[in-house]
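The records we work with from here on pair a chain with its fold. The integers have meaning only within a learned vocabulary of local backbone shapes. A complete example follows; check for yourself that the lines match position by position.

:::
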Amino acid sequence: MPAVNGTTPVNGSTKFLDYHSAVEALNEYQSRDGLGIEDLIDTKQRGGLTYNDFLILPGYIGFPASEVALDSPITKRITLKTPFVSSPMDTVTEHEMAIHMALQGGLGVIHHNCSPDAQADMVRKVKRYENGFIVDPVVISKETTVEEAKALKEKWGFGGFPVTESGKLGSKLLGIVTNRDLQFEDDLSQTVDKVMVTDLVTAQLGVTLPEANKILAKSRKGKLPIVDKDFNLVSMISRSDLTKNLHFPLASKLPDSKQLICAAAIGTRPEDKIRLKKLVDAGLDIVVLDSSQGNSMYQIDMVKWIKQEYPGLDVIGGNVVTREQAANLIAAGVDGLRIGMGSGSACITQEVMAVGRPQAAAVYSVSAFAAKFGVPCIADGGVQNVGHIVKGLALGASTVMMGGLLAGTTESPGTSFVSREGKLVKAYRGMGSIDAMQDKKAGAGSKNSQASNAGTARYFSEGDSVLVAQGVSGAVAHRGSVGKFVPYLAAGLKHSMQDCGMRSLKELHESAANGTLRFEIRTASAQLEGGVNMESYEKKLYA
């Protein structure tokens, strides 16, 4: 190439290699640029790292972000299409959050700082929200009053109840009471046989789900009862489920029932065995043993008992931050692990107890060990943005659990209010906060509500005369609906993985293990450099 304006030395040299050989020239180096994951998380040399202490180096982009697959296991037997999990905190996850997290392909873990019956009701609402064949529909009799039918609609959050002779499944179908039949009915004392729809479209027992969906689509009805040869109600399907399938193609569902996957937390006290039975009867799929320090005789005994009593129920143990902690729970039979101690935004365990571990070091150490036994891990805590999610997954976690990041969404049970600065915020508290540990809902009116409280159980403080806080209460910015916020997180994760040159989370984990994925330590000045450096700015995360 002729010089246009003279020949300028580059790094003091004017003799260059043929540019066609640039890729081959990389073979001259002993290793790839940056650090491998083992060199990065070398605690003897670097101490314990957090998510902010390092970056992932970019790879080669040879595909669009839309092709990135986010499928990842949450337990040995259950896989999510989006690796996001909401924390079992009483200001984060109740049935609304659990439903909408599952619809987006993730999972919500319902908290247990409430009575067993209240928690079981939340599980039922999640399980009944979406179905294939509804094999246990809410059935009423012709003697049921309009007032009772409206109360059922209020309780379950849906309408459209089949009416049978006995008021039970397996009895002769008489009609269906729909929302429209009840909406403007003023006489609450009259029975539903006066207002129900009797012009029914049905399908015969033995019909497949795709066939039944076609019949329902053509019928323009809201429900399609499935009946036997004697016209006895066997099951039914709902038009609303067809709509949900269309709008939420990534939804976390069981392959047979097509119901949303539901998880809930319990403690490790003897009475939690009674709580678990109610949750299992309500349809629970995954139980999360909720403890700040999972390596205890209480949790190990509980894991063994659950695996013996409910072999079809998946158990997630934790929390753990070391290989030794994880080993005991894996040996007891857990199907998944939760990693994190003191790294949550509302947690002060590391400060008060002087026990815990920086989250990046904990995630790598535990997940690398658990992978030897096929046990998926949840990175729980320390997640403040999309970048932290990517890092947690790159270090070996299969999914990421979020509390404060989701507490500000519409679907969380926290209370919304305007802060002193005039911003819309929602209440958020750690389960180790004094407010949470003194909450009396879990006691269900008992004299010793502290013994039944989820916060005291999580931190082994049920019998303490003086409660020692391991969490704080406060507020977080309102973030809008999960329906927009979670897709934003997923889109950000896909673009980050595209930058890394990774088409799937499986490839991300394999590349980290074999040294293809590279990292770099981030000094304090590098963190400053990577932040916003402007006099004033507006930080709008998504549109």
Q: What stands out?
A: Residues 390 and 496 are 7 Å apart (CA to CA). The two ends are 46 Å apart (CA to CA).
